[in-house]
Amino acid sequence: xxxxxxxxxxxxxxxxxxxxxxxxxxxxxxxxxxxxxxxxxxxxxxxxxxxxxxxxxxxxxxxxxxxxxxxxxxxxxxxxxxxxxxxxxxxxxxxxxxxxxxxxxxxxxxxxxxxxxxxxxxxxxxxxxxxxxxxxxxxxxxxxxxxxxxxxxxxxxxxxxxxxxxxxxxxxxxxxxxxxxxxxx
Length: 185
What we know:
- The protein is α/β, with parallel strands linked by helices.
- It is built from nine helices and seven strands; from the N terminus they run H-E-H-E-H-E-E-E-H-E-H-E-H-H-H-H.
């Protein structure tokens, strides 16, 4: 683990917007980034984030991709409009190529899967414009990524097993077995 505190201490503006509808994750990530030297503002919805951006445009932002009241892409655009030099990182538990491309086109500099480690987030925020951050120390396993995707589709289908199985092109009983198990590490 590399100590990023000195690099963060040298920043002229340490303002950071953290937007996530998962309150425990938002609080934990906010505290961890604050301990590293950032000055976070924590919000739980797109509307709160837009108001925070309007009141004080942050130098950095860590935004969830999907929230109940909208998408993080709307906030990326607001941050970019208010402060073109801001660095924005998108977080999502349901990563796929299409949403990564949309986030980058909207102005995000990086795209990380949840649960993202605070050091990975800080590294991504501090990465130089022409260099990409190093790969995460402990990325999610392929089984965990698959499980996260299945959970997301299941949630989007209103916890309807038959509809989820149809959309995933999977037998219903196979899906039921997967849903009955604990999340892989």
